[in-house]
Design a protein that fits this description.
Blueprint (H helix, E strand, L loop, with lengths): L8 H15 L2 H22 L16 E4 L14 E4 L19 H11 L20
Length: about 140
């Protein structure tokens, strides 16, 4: 846990941050909003920097996977917050939302691996790829 496993950061996590996720509180909403704002900031920064090796911008050639084990607070496993951003060098479809139809995370990992040409036939307990993810 590095320095997050000692006071005062451990105290903050155990008494404020972690607890707020169980209560689906305003604090939890604020934390989630802040985290997503930081991802958006990173994407903005990548989008204005040229990728001199591959062309386009760094965002065009990056894949960002953002996940949470919380699907509405209290560690619910249904519909957790997951999104993929960036162009991944043209390997994935961009600009749309995909209903994964109950597919597990292992299916998403397999889809990412195949989009990057790894040639995997499965990953963990995957039963296929996510339709509409890759180009």
């Amino acid at each position: 846990m590095g320095e997050f496993g000692v006071d005062p950061r451990l105290y903050w996590n155990e008494t404020r941050s972690h607890v707020s996720s169980h209560n689906e509180s305003d604090l939890f909403d604020a934390q989630t909003r802040w985290f997503n704002m930081m991802v958006a900031y990173m994407m903005d920064e990548l989008s204005v920097r040229a990728d001199t090796a591959y062309g386009g911008t760094l965002l065009d050639n990056t894949l960002i996977l953002v996940m949470s084990e919380v699907g509405g607070g209290n560690h619910q496993q249904d519909n957790p917050g997951i999104y993929v951003a960036g162009g991944a060098g043209g390997a994935i479809r961009v600009g749309n939302a995909i209903d994964a139809a109950g597919a597990g995370m292992s299916n998403l990992y397999l889809s990412i691996a195949q989009a990057f040409g790894l040639g995997w036939s499965n990953y963990g307990n995957s039963f296929g790829t996510i339709n509409g993810f890759s180009v």
